[in-house]
What does this fold into?
Amino acid sequence: IKRNAYRLLKRKDIAHEPHDLRFVRFNELIARDVAPDPVTRDPHDLAVLQYTGGTTGVPKGAMLSHANLAANSAQMITHVGHMPERQERTLGVLPMFHVFALTTVLNYSVDTAAEMILLPRFEMKSFLETAKRVKPTQFFGVPTLYAALNGVELHGEFDQVRVCISGGAPLPLDIRQKFEAKTGVRVVEGYGLSEASPIIACNPLQGLVKDNSCGPAFPGTTLEIRDPDNIDKVMSQGQRGEVCARGAQVMAGYWNRPKDTEATFVYGALRTGDIGYLDEDGYLFLVDRIKDLILCSGYNVYPRIIEDALYEHPSVAEAVVIGVPDAYRGQAPKAFVALHQG
It folds into this structure.
């Protein structure tokens, strides 16, 4: 009855099967009385073409191998600290085509035998009803989700959550603090990109979390800060520069784009296109995207610094800063701000 009701009421959410040779049902496949044709496999075989704008904005297919994806999931297990004596429950609402969800919601949950509760999209009412019913122990979201949850009444939906990570975009300090105060759940910010499967840094679930930092390097990952004007030069601790990463999760390159691939690596390290610095404890602080840099009267102005300052005002719900032409300064920052209701 439940199955038929779902097909009737959720018809638009059900994928339609193509009626051709590209699609074979699993029960039909195993019913065929034929021997399999062995295929030579290698961990470095291509698993996913993860399309991304990268640092140029032009869509490119990041070639992620089985080894890349398996490595990032294994790094995640090390970072989180799996508890095999406990059945974990991952509530997933992020789309699986997003590499953050691919690793955290799908691959990591499979590797740790966690139960996955998947929702086709984020709708507040159904999300809260599901969370209240299943009591997830793990939740991975983007800052927009946490901001939305800060604006509604919660009634114990996150009481059993022990792993809560934000990724996909910088997590404003104000949103993090409000969510933690509201739920009593610690949410930590991670950082990555499609070309790295995606995670290369994350704050610890236990221990020191530094405000506005995306944490130290992920297990088995090396972070470097290089001078964007002289990429051969590695910057000292505390100096700003382009964030570069090495690790088993880093892609082989871009599909059929050898020049873009060559430009994205420096001595084997992946260039992220982000400006940041490492502090004395190895925590990574992101300043901004290189392409978002605003040149104002000869000074380098980073939009995120202005955005972080705007978020400190209690009336600001969301803020974004861009550069606009200015006859006197060359460029000037312009802020777009959304206020809290009331």
